Amino acid sequence: MAAVNGERLLDCAICPNMCRCECPVDQEWRREASSPAGKARLAHLLLEGRLEWDSALLEVLSTCLGCRGCQLLCPFPGLDLSRELLRVRTEVCPAGITLPAAVPYLNNLKKFGSPYGARRSGSASRERQGRPEVLYFVNCTAQANNPRMQQLTLELLGAAGVSYEVLDQYCCGYPAQIWGDLDLARQLAEENAARIAGSGASLLLTDCPECWHTFTECYPCWGSELELPVIDTATYFLELVRQKRLKPGPVKEIGRITYHDPCIWARVADKCEAPRELLQSIPALELEEARPGGQETRCCGGGAMFQLTFPERSARIARRRLSELPPSDALVTSCPFCRENLQADGAEVLDLVELLSRAVFQEKDE
Amino acid sequence: MADHLSKVIQEERPSRPDYASLAKQLAAIVGSDGVSADGADRLANCRDYWPMGTLWFLEGKSPALPDLVVWPRRTAEVAAVLKLAVENDVPVTPYGEGSGALGGAIPLQGGIALDLKRMNRVLKLDRDNLMVTVQPGMNGARYEEYLNRRGFTGGHFPQSLRCSTVGGWVACRAAGTFSTRYGKIEDMLVSLEAVLPDGTIVHGRDLPRTSTGPRVDHLFLGSEGTLGVITAVTLRIWPYPAARIYRSYAFETIEQALEAIRRLIQAGARPAVVRLYDSAETAHHFPECKEAAGRALLILLFEGDGGIIAAEAGLAAGCAGEQGALPAGSEPVERWLKTRFDIGISSALFRQGAVVDTIEVSTNWTNAAPLYHAMQKAMLAVEGTVLASGHYSHVYPEGTALYLTLIGFPSGDKEQYYKRLWGAAMESCLALGGAISHHHGVGLHRGLWMAQEHGTTLEALRLIKRAFDPQGIMNPGKLGLEEAAKWRQ
Ligand SMILES: Cc1cc2nc3c(=O)[nH]c(=O)nc-3n(C[C@H](O)[C@H](O)[C@H](O)COP(=O)(O)OP(=O)(O)OC[C@H]3O[C@@H](n4cnc5c(N)ncnc54)[C@H](O)[C@@H]3O)c2cc1C
Ligand code: SF4
Ligand code: SF4
């Protein structure tokens, strides 16, 4: 990862918070120090050596979801505050100062390869017949909260006649990075990169935007660049539908859906179209657009592992987002964090893959 | 942690409260997450967006530091906090989103920074009578979004919409860029609720007009936290506009443009946006507008009922034509709409060592052009000033506001330059009978000229202050009500 851009950070520090209305953290905490420019001001003073690090300061600087809502309104084109804050936490914060709430999860990560603790074993890895087309990366969050995702994804791949293999041993490294343990993140990246290379697969498939972002942006910086394309499930399954290898039918009891764009897919990966096209490929399905939606979407509160480190705040941010979503038969998204978090009030939330699976298999089942 | 940053203008207060024990008592009122003595919070609430504060920040200094930051959620909590503050003689400085331009939110004597941002709920939407009641800490853009989702607009769009609170608007008598149609915040205010330092809650009624004596609640308009704390605000709202028309005209001289605007407004038209840029600002903001090269550009945005605004736009074309203006189309308005929140350039200038500020004043039509020329001349005469450009952006039948943008690269001490620059601006404004502020308010800095602005009225204001706040705990040193000695020196 490149070094902190002190000049950009200073631009932010002397900005009157022109984006705070779009910052879910600011709207939840309502604490000046946690506002976008508030964090930049503290970071600047730390960089200048005018303040001394302690865990309270680290906690404030950790109150960033990485959602890039601020970038929508930021007058400085090259500024990505979340990235600068991440750099400050990982590269400037002295060793030994850790976000207290992250400690147990970092320990899990070291011990089990997942922040959630022991991983469920037994992925339905298919018999290997030569090089698999697809290597499916099982993200820790879905594995811990919604293990069916894995099975459904593999069923869809099977139905389309795609040869696959499953990689479900280690976390991608994203949480370790977010919590400032860059050594651990690098180590996980190295292990994953070796296994990915060893699989001989032609592409890596992921349903988690944070994994995608870590593979594509961070791995190269950590010396673990992947040699194969990393593709999200929406794009990949859309292609299979286009090739008529998957044939979605109408989904019973679901006529109108609301789609919540996960912020990383929408703003970092620029992937708002593929999920919509995939949804449109399902017959008799009407899409209700969220306001704001698409690139202007708002974070569900699940970014930066907030569900683990700031669970109550995270749930409240989700409720706020839910209140912006139009009512429909089902709320659909394409991120394990969003899916989990938007269930805050017991609402049923489906991952795109879950909906697609119903569309593809429903008629057959009857 | 925060204390080793020097507190440049902090004033002493004789009382020395035990803040550790006070924090415990406050936590009993607002909950433990509602009070903080953390260095991070004290630093965050130590200043607003007054450029001097930014300059000090760049030097690693703070103007003053609060001892505690307190976040109430309810009016009753505000009342209990203020009572406790009076008992312990602790100063209280209300804090919205810190976008104030004059140092109003600086806790000059330390004490409590009363951060109102967690009071951010909508209390009542009255669709039939077109009013909304909100808590003061609601963010401006979120306020407008709430209304838009329900088919209304609040009509208030300051450039700081996204980084200021509704309570801050009322406390500072703010003006939005659409003010010519919707009015300043004081025109939108129906009533408010406020807490006096002794804990008394006063409130007006949500009625169109009353004739039952002076409106005590309206005293809080522009009070900038010196009388008490605004805890709820009822504002007028409008149906979301059905139609919009954009027009722009390029004039040979500022005088001709002002005459066209005066006639338009006095004939009864109310475009939402009226902005007249001098030639320097025209060149800066609209470089691609050929008609406007070397001229003063007027942009007009009409909104509301289609029939009414079409008639207004027709009237505008006539008034502009009479003054020999060239029509410049709708593109400059679209450009302004796109770029109106873009303040990137001022950060870049600060980083390069410049002093950047804006000064907004108001005056009558007869004085509008002379005031611009006089103030511009006075400020350019201050050594180090490289730019003093201006535009007129809020107009009324009786006159207009003038908004000046200043950039200086002083060779010597920035603080001294800053004071000289402001001195030149304020003295020249007062000499021509202008009001020294149209909408940014007084805060700390403009207090230096409040006696000249108000004459005997300032003493009357001080009497009101003493009646409401005999101990002087509310935002001491602001509005020119008390001497802010360190800053004056
Ligand atoms: C980029 C930029 C553009 C701006 N554009 C405009 C503009 O177009 N029009 C305009 O009018 N202003 C503008 N301003 C100035 C500023 O935004 C306004 O003065 C705004 O009203 C301040 O609101 P705030 O919530 O940020 O208040 P703060 O800065 O937090 O406080 C301002 C003052 O009000 C007091 N206060 C705040 N809340 C309360 C309360 N509930 N009860 C009692 N006192 C309270 C504080 O003590 C302080 O004295 C701009 C500022 C910036 C930085
Ligand atoms: S991210 Fe951009 S808009 Fe937001 S506070 Fe920083 S500089 Fe200002
Ligand atoms: S990335 Fe999201 S949470 Fe972080 S400062 Fe920007 S808007 Fe706020």
Description:
Chain A has 18 helices and 8 strands. With 366 residues, chain A is α/β, with parallel strands linked by helices. In chain A, the strands form 2 sheets. Chain A has a 4-stranded parallel sheet, with helices on both faces. Chain A has a 4-stranded parallel sheet with strand order 6-5-7-8. The longest helix of chain A has 18 residues, at 182-199. The radius of gyration of chain A is 20 Å and the shape is globular. The mean pLDDT of chain A is 94. Chain B folds into 4 domains: 2-118, Uridine Diphospho-n-acetylenolpyruvylglucosamine Reductase, domain 2 (2-Layer Sandwich), CATH 3.30.43; 122-239, Uridine Diphospho-n-acetylenolpyruvylglucosamine Reductase, domain 3, CATH 3.30.465; 243-339, Alpha-Beta Plaits, CATH 3.30.70; 344-443, GMP Synthetase, Chain A, domain 3 (2-Layer Sandwich). Chain B has helices at residues 19-30, 39-44, 51-58, 75-87, 140-149, 166-172, 179-182, 185-188, 254-266, 279-285, 306-322, 331-339, 344-351, 365-380, 414-431, 450-454, 456-468, 485-488; strands at residues 35-36, 68-70, 92-95, 112-115, 122-126, 131-134, 152-153, 189-195, 201-203, 229-236, 238-239, 243-251, 273-277, 296-304, 326-327, 355-364, 385-396, 399-408. In chain B, α1 packs antiparallel against α4, α9 (254-266) runs antiparallel to α11 and α14 packs antiparallel against α15. Chain B is globular and about 70 Å long. The chains are: A alpha/beta (366), B alpha+beta (489). At the A-B interface, α1, α3 and α4 of A face α2, α3, α5 and α13 of B. The structure holds flavin-adenine dinucleotide (FAD) and iron/sulfur cluster (2 copies). Flavin-adenine dinucleotide (FAD) is lined by residues 48-49, 93-101, 104-105, 116, 136, 158-160, 164-165, 167-169, 171-172, 174-175, 224-225, 229-230, 343, 439-441, 475, 478 of chain B.
